[in-house]
Amino acid sequence: MHAPNSFDYAVVRVVPFTEREEFFNAGVIVFCPQQQFLRARVHLDEAKLHVLAPGLAAEEVRQRLDAIVRIADGDANGGPIAQLAQRARFHWLVAPRSTLIQVSATHTGICDKPEFVLDRLFQEQVLEIPST
């Protein structure tokens, strides 16, 4: 039996107007260095985007979200940042920024299978609507 691995994650947010500080969750980034795992999963809820920013083109937002996935994957089409080492890519992805796409604070946990963590967090943080 092996020891569980630590992981870090951040939630990707769409912030159409940074001065208003309104946002909605659009993805999750999970990094588990012990298993050499860095992946991001994104989903743009166009209905939410339309409510917060009716004039903002969904395709523009989708392109920026997709870039996060390419960088996490180390995809050659992700530009120079995607060519960095995995740890450097993760730190670049979760760095604070004041732009259309932002990330939450980084959180940590323990897991055996980071791909299951990615699935669970994506479901909880992006796809599910919180009950009131």
Write up this protein.
There is one protein chain. With 132 residues, the protein is α+β, with helices and mostly antiparallel strands. It has 4 helices and 5 strands. It has helices spanning 46-52, 58-73, 86-94, 114-127; strands at 5-14, 24-32, 37-42, 101-103, 107-111. Strands 1, 2, 3, 4 and 5 form a 5-stranded antiparallel sheet that branches. A hairpin with a 4-residue loop joins strand 2 (24-32) and strand 3. The longest helix has 16 residues, at 58-73. The radius of gyration is 15 Å and the shape is globular. The mean pLDDT is 94.
What tags apply to this protein structure?
132 residues; 25% strand; single chain; 5-stranded antiparallel beta sheet; alpha+beta; globular
Calculate the mean pLDDT score and round it.
94
- Strand composition percent: 25-35%
C-alpha end-to-end distance? 41 Å
Q: Largest beta sheet, briefly? A: 5 strands, antiparallel
Structural class by helix and strand composition: alpha+beta
Report the helical percentage: 25-40%
Name the overall outline.
Answer: globular
Number of strand elements: 5
From N to C, what is the helix and strand string? EEEHHHEEH
SS summary, helix count:
4
Question: How would you classify the quaternary structure?
Answer: single chain
Q: Which regions have little confidence, pLDDT < 50, spanning 5+ residues?
A: none
Rg, alpha carbons:
15 Å
